[in-house]
Design a protein that fits this description.
This protein has 254 residues and is mainly α. It has twelve helices and two strands, in the order αααααβαααααβαα. The chain has a two-stranded antiparallel sheet with strand order 1-2.
Length: 254
């Protein structure tokens, strides 16, 4: 492999890793604030969705959800992977998927339109600094930490596409080929680490406005219909978690 191609592969994989980290953090902040009373209260004071504009806002939000789902679905399909492999950059398949996902998240966060912020579906009074406020923050933080834990259990370097590039530079076959049959089976059944944690983040909020309800409903349908985990997958995840935990404790004892 020549120096130029190696540099390009390293650059793209590094950009994908960094861009994904920043986008997930921004998306987590976006989800947390969009369900807070203070954030929607400011929106209510600044603007009230008029009868003539709520239709446009709804169409924009639906298009953003569809964009995210289409990106996830099409770039995970076999024909897209064949196209990338035909260009000679098949090793970047995962990195390009990560970059496109991060870009889709950025677009959702930047272009999302509020819907009737003054008329929420439900609203619980949560004062800043109160126990309820701390509970909401803690639930969201724990949910994201669980997502991170599953990523670490499943080999985060491979999920980000970095390991594929590293193996390619060394002249080794794809790391997925060295995984067990159970691991490859798991990857065929789901794309998002620990979907239940993401569902908690989407729905466990003190103030549910109509745009947040639309976002949560769209992502929930995708998570439920786009994944088919069974007991064998859960058993494999449990086994890998216990293995990682054992390795962690052994490294601490050294």
């Amino acid at each position: 492999m020549n120096v130029v191609k190696t540099a390009v592969l390293c650059l793209i994989s590094a950009v994908g890793f960094s861009f994904c980290f920043l986008s997930v953090v921004q998306f987590a902040v976006f989800l947390y604030h969009s369900g807070s009373e203070q954030f929607n209260g400011v929106l209510c004071q600044e603007r009230t969705t008029k009868d003539s504009s709520w239709v446009v806002s709804t169409i924009i939000d639906v298009c953003l959800i569809v964009l995210f789902i289409l990106q996830h679905t099409l770039m995970a399909s076999s024909w897209w992977k064949q196209i990338i492999h035909s260009t000679g950059f098949g090793v970047l398949t995962r990195s390009l998927y990560v970059i496109a996902t991060s870009l889709a998240l950025q677009i959702v966060c930047s272009w999302w339109q509020p819907l009737f912020p003054c008329s929420p579906i439900w609203q619980f009074q949560v004062s800043p600094g109160s126990f309820s406020s701390f509970l909401c923050f803690a639930v969201h933080a724990i949910s994201w930490l669980l997502v991170l834990a599953v990523c670490l259990t499943l080999d985060y370097a491979e999920l980000m596409g970095v390991k594929q590039v590293y193996y390619s530079i060394l002249g080794l076959p794809s790391p997925l080929y060295q995984k067990s049959e159970e691991h490859r089976r798991l990857f065929q059944h789901f794309r998002h680490p620990l979907s239940s944690s993401l569902l908690v983040v989407l729905w466990f909020i003190p103030m549910m406005c109509w745009d947040r309800f639309l976002l949560a409903s769209g992502f929930t349908l995708y998570l439920l219909l786009g994944h088919s985990l069974d007991t064998e997958d859960y058993d494999y995840l449990k086994e890998q978690y216990e293995l990682k935990e054992e390795q962690l404790w052994q490294s601490r004892l050294r």
